[in-house]
Prior knowledge:
By secondary structure, the protein is of the alpha+beta class. The protein has ten helices and eleven strands.
Amino acid sequence: MPGDRLDQWLVSRGHAATKSEAQAIIMAGRVTVDGRPAEKPGRRVTSGMAVRVRPRDGGYVSRGGVKLAHALADCLLRAGASRVYAVDVGRGQLAWSLRTDPRVVCLEGINARYLSTDQIGGPCDLVTADLAFISLRLVWRPIAGVLSGGGAVIALVKPQFEAGRDRVGRGGVVRDPAVHREVLGAVLEAARPSGLHPLGVTPSPLAGPAGNLEYLAYLRRGDGEGLAPQALDAAVAQAWSRP
């Protein structure tokens, strides 16, 4: 079929600065072709097709900005952060507008499990975490290691990556609220040996790409009592009561 790849079309028309950014826009569900959602960056489009790009939610550079308008690089800058270290095990994932921002230090190809203050030049006041295909339980210790005394953590808890495979349903979705409650408690309790104590948890305002319900947890480095079980119960109940 003649025509351009959809991701290349988005770059050529100024909707994205790079091919990777264009692919992220497509995967976020923001592009339609002839009125239908476009899911494949490599599909061909011609001049006779109506391609529409939906504006970013809230003006953030990614879907993650809506989930973490309580965190993450774009949100942190909007909130007045003077320096943000953007750590990613992959490459080419950071939006061009952030990559070229002088306040952002792009640290690509770094596994968060091995993060250290040597890589970021000293301790941080705040760490935000949005992980995929890895448990938060594996990164609590390195996160605590790069925090200043009394530093805070805002982490996205994703039950689909915390529960065992036998507890994740079709399509990678955890459909049992009891599993959510168990996972949430276990993940936050696992942070305590690293010197992080949980102070709050709330449902993410946006579900994961497959419809998974997720949670934002707030922790601080230092001593503390942790969260009462009722707080976890309430967070799960609130998440599952949403339409």
